[in-house]
Amino acid sequence: MKYTEEIVLKAAGDAYKNGEVKFDIITGKCALIVIDMQDEFVKPEWTSSWIPEATKQVAKIKQLIKHCRSKAIPVIYTAFRDTHFFMDRPKTGNRMPNRYSHLPSDPAWFKEGNIWHEISPEDDEIVIYKPSYGAFYDTPLETILKNMGKNTIIICGILTNYCCGTTARQGYERGFKVVFGSDVTSTDYPDMQEPELQILRKGVAKVIDSEKLITFLK
Predict the structure, then answer these.
(1) Where does residue 170 fall: left (phi above 0), alpha (psi -120 to 50 degrees), or beta otherwise?
(2) Domain residue ranges in the chain
(3) Which of 118, 100, 121, 119 lies closest to 109 in space, CA to CA?
(4) pLDDT given at position 97
């Protein structure tokens, strides 16, 4: 067979748009990771880091959390906050354009890392405070998942193309099966949602909406 430009481009396009990873979702092997659904990102009009789409998705994320709890699927939260006097950050982080240095900043932001009150953790649920985008970077998440006997991570929260997407990639590279909620993850700029979902769909994760996901988690 001759692999013409037309053939290889069509194959790539089909994989981005319609690809589906070949693994089953086994409820007893799953853990739900709720990424950074904290006040700084969810509380309307409070910080320059507010993600309006995240606020709109609280109800769906709440429903997913409730369902996972009912099926004894561990719910693990992450939040970004002041840790280790900022000495645990990637060194060039504060030089990135996403810091919005031209907008006023409040020193109270990202101090506590409080999860949004509508989906707050229960007393026996773990909250991991992370220093960068991915939830596996410099955190005990991998050890926790292995001690729980979980090989599949379900990702919801924010940002699709930063913290959620990076966590998905880190999980994939560590041998975890990754399930990515297409309608329970969001971006700061909605035009970026679908491109990131397409990348993850092709090479990293099973990308499905929360309604379909809940039907799999029996």
Answers:
(1) alpha
(2) 5-216
(3) 100
(4) 80
Type of residue at 50: W
φ/ψ of 188, rounded to 5, equals -75, -15
Q: Which two tokens stand for residue 59?
A: 């109800």
Q: Which single residue is written with the structure tokens 């991570």?
A: 153
Provide the 8-state DSSP code for 97: G
CATH of span 5-216: 3.40.50.850
Rounded Cα distance between 83 and 171, Å, is 23
Residue 180 token pair: 């990515």
Give dist(CA 89, CA 188) in Å, integer. Answer: 21
Place of tokens 């919005």: 100
Q: Report the percent of the chain where pLDDT is more than 70.
A: 100
What's the pTM value of the predicted model, to 2 decimals?
Answer: 0.94
Strand order in the sheet with 152-158: 126-130, 75-80, 30-35, 152-158, 177-186, 206-208
Closest CA relative to residue 54, chosen from 214, 217, 186, 200: 186
At residue 184, what are phi and psi to the nearest 5 degrees?
A: -125, 20
Q: Can you give 142-209 as a three-state secondary structure string?
A: HHHHHHHCCCEEEEEEECHHHHHHHHHHHHHHCCCEEEEEEEEEECCCHHHHHHHHHHHHHHCCEEEC
DSSP state of 128: E
